[in-house]
Amino acid sequence: xxxTYASFVSIGAYAPEKILDNKMLEEMVDTSDEWIxxxxxxxxxxxxxxxEYTSDMGVKACEKAIERSGLSKxxxxxxxxxxxxxxxFNMPSTACIISDKLGIxxxxxxxxxxxxxxxxxxxxxxxxxxxxxxxxxxxxxxSEKFSSIVDYSDRGTCILFGDGAGAxxxxxxxxxxxxxxxxxxxxxxxxxxxLVTPAPGSVHPASQKVLDEGLNFVKMKGNETFKLAVKTLxxxxxxxxxxxAIESHQIKHFVPHQANYRIIKAVGDALKFDDEQIVLTVxxxxxxxxxxxxxxxxxxxxxxRLKTGDLMLLDTFGGGLTWAxxxxxxxxx
Length: 333
Ligand code: COA
Description:
10 helices; binds coenzyme A; alpha/beta; about 25% strand; 2 domains; Peroxisomal Thiolase, Chain A, domain 1
């Protein structure tokens, strides 16, 4: 019997209409456009409307990915969503809500929590489901309303994050040349306190104390996270390239997690990537966590830079701590 491979066949994304720029942040906290631009490379982020939820953004990204795959909704047999800002903590899952809004029923659907590494984690799960023969067409979506857990009086975090969603269809193929070549995903929970949203959860269930102390907002050890991100992202890429006997110059699009331009630059330099190889969207979207990588892929798709067969290297890092990388060709049209 011929082997089954998983292929990345389409991409879609959505960014909400409202824009929060650095000048607006100057009015909110003690910061400046110059500081933010120099330290992070971020100029703007998109912010969801009050009545626009993680599932709504996810649905818009999924609709594009489904349409571009040429598949009917009936052909999708698994829906997975990566998010740390689900519609509800934690039932029903955002994947269930997205499936319902898309009109996909009686199909397995669930969320995963891997923070910014979520989308690449989903790729590894989709690949395993497909290669095992259990599923044929998997819809994966990273969607975040990060603004719902950001404290807009904390200048250390509020300048970084934005909202958005990105989705892809991963389909079965017998053609090895179209396969997702490799996905590495890993974690080290001993660094869990670098990025944490303390509440609500079983440690701190919702209470007046949670609200008074702002435990519902994301807390970050920025500088420590920065240093570990550069080290881990660089090592992760070295490992996956070596494991697959690929040189960095063979990569058409290096798509790193869009957290901070200085992190991307340091990793790009260490790996000797040219500027044309590095995909950058952090200036306009900020860090959109699990949506960051698929939003960046969608950007090069919509601008016409991403062509069928192009070799992509994805590299991400996030709370947990988690990290992941993937080597794959784009098989969309
Ligand atoms: N505006 C102006 N000053 C700011 C500021 C802001 N928005 N945020 C922090 N500062 C100040 C600090 O208070 C500190 O002042 P001090 O020297 O008087 O104490 C100074 O700038 C330096 O702070 P530091 O935290 O060392 O700056 P940094 O160069 O590390 O930049 C981040 C801060 C948050 C931009 C950076 O650490 C970062 O991007 N970290 C990684 C974040 C990340 O990737 N998170 C998600 C991972 S998925």
